[in-house]
Design brief:
By secondary structure, this protein is α+β, with helices and mostly antiparallel strands. The chain has a single domain (3-131), classed as 2,3-Dihydroxybiphenyl 1,2-Dioxygenase, domain 1, CATH 3.10.180. Helices cover 23% and strands 40% of the residues. The chain has helices at 14-25, 63-71, 85-94, and strands spanning 3-11, 31-35, 40-47, 50-57, 74-81, 105-107, 111-116, 125-131. A hairpin with an 8-residue loop joins strand 7 (111-116) and strand 8 (125-131). GO terms for molecular function: metal ion binding; methylmalonyl-CoA epimerase activity. Pfam families: Glyoxalase_4. Keywords: Metal-binding.
Length: 136
């Protein structure tokens, strides 16, 4: 794992939260997008080397809607940048972690993503991300 890529925060209303984080960080979001496969709207902020991803549910049955219903707004996941997501999934499985999706899927911010079950990571949802190289 190379570094923490971003911290994901589940929010009820992305526009209200965009305003709050703009005030907090002193920068506007550099990207907003919808990830239909996950049923979320996302917004990304960058400050220094760090990124924050805000996530709002687009459907009542999305993972973010369920998370907020159970725990309220707050930190949803920590994402780590990896150089080879397939190799990292294999390594982590061999180490005993439960991988929620063994085949990486397209996520927000032009990334391949895969998640580790929080039951095997001290209650924290871990996301692995690898930049998608559209030129390859």
């Amino acid at each position: 794992m190379n570094k923490i890529e971003h911290i994901g925060i589940a929010v009820n209303d992305i526009e209200t939260s965009n305003t709050l984080f703009h005030k907090l960080l002193g920068v506007a979001p550099y990207k907003t997008e919808e990830v239909a496969s996950e049923g979320v709207k996302t917004s990304f902020f960058k400050t220094g080397e760090s990124k924050i991803e805000l996530l709002e549910a687009m459907t009542n049955d999305s993972a973010i809607a369920k998370f907020i219903a159970k725990k309220g707004e707050g930190i949803h996941h920590i994402a780590f940048e990896v150089g080879d997501i397939q190799a990292e999934i294999k390594r982590l499985k061999e180490e005993g972690f439960t991988v929620l999706n063994e085949i990486p899927k397209r996520g927000a911010d032009n990334k391949w993503v895969a998640f580790l079950h929080p039951k095997t990571t001290n209650g924290v949802l871990i996301e692995l991300c690898q930049e998608i190289d559209d030129k390859a």
